[in-house]
Amino acid sequence: MTEDEEKEKGLPERNTKKLEDLLSIMARLRDPVSGCDWDVKQTFQSIAPHTIEEAYEVADAIERRDMVDLEEELGDLLLQVVYHSRIAEENEFFNFSDVVHNISEKMIRRHPSVFQHDSYGARNVQGDSWESIKASERVRKNPMGSNLPSVLDGIPATIPPLIRAEKLQQRAATVGFDWPDLDGVFKKIYEEIEELRRALSRAESKNRSEEELGDILFAVVNLARKINVDSGVALARTNRKFENRFRNIERWLAEIGSKPQDTSLDELETLWQRAKKT
């Protein structure tokens, strides 16, 4: 749509659109009479995968340092918040203003050193106080009843496993359940590797091997946490490194009219070492 068409339709000029305009656009798209058929039939469940995908695309743009792409992806992610909020408003659960109010209240509550006069020092506010505030919030969400409140409450089961593993370990560490040094973590990794080797040598069930492999991954995530490395970022970087190297191998082979599947493993290894140096 051109700028003249936007003016003719009464839409705000480019770079002047505000959040209220986006909310109005979504309301119009969701109008059961004059809205978009696809948008009207969407639900929380059908939109959720798109929300996750958009969050990953934001992270990807940041990793690539592509600020033009990041601007666009942040808009796509904001749209997801507006989308869910609109569906909630239609069902009289809550609206976008409620979402903004709640997150604003939470940020003020979690930063007493900034928004309140108190006796906390900077270290405690960012450390012990932050965790105690979050703990009290979890208690309010899950008061004493049939389920005993846990320090692990509030960690979604649907987030990526590597992220969830780190969050579980971080929460457990707040109550002292943590290795005191890296030696214990390394020993645990070696221990879990040996348990997987034994399970494989005994030809135990796939479930058993899967469990042992999961233990290894969990221990490696713990190591990443202890050395202050994001395991997901580290793996993403290795994925890109592998992809770049393998694409180089494919290109070099194509230059001589060959393909990886027509090349011996020894030759592929030689090319791999060349790709590493490249």
Helices and strands, with pairings:
Layout: H1 3-8, H2 19-29, H3 37-40, H4 44-63, H5 67-90, H6 96-110, H7 112-115, H8 122-126, H9 128-141, H10 161-173, H11 182-201, H12 206-226, H13 231-255, H14 265-277
Helix pairs in contact: 2-5, 4-5, 10-12, 11-12, 13-14
Which structural traits does this protein have?
278 residues; mainly alpha; Helix Hairpins; 2 domains; 14 helices; extended
How does this model look, in words?
This protein is an all-alpha fold. The protein has two domains: 3-110, Helix Hairpins; 161-277, Helix Hairpins, CATH 1.10.287.1080. The chain has helices at residues 3-8, 19-29, 37-40, 44-63, 67-90, 96-110, 112-115, 122-126, 128-141, 161-173, 182-201, 206-226, 231-255, 265-277. Helix 2 packs across helix 5, helix 4 packs antiparallel against helix 5 (67-90) and helix 11 runs antiparallel to helix 12. The longest helix has 25 residues, at 231-255. The chain starts with a helix and ends with a helix. The model is unreliable at 118-125 (pLDDT under 50).
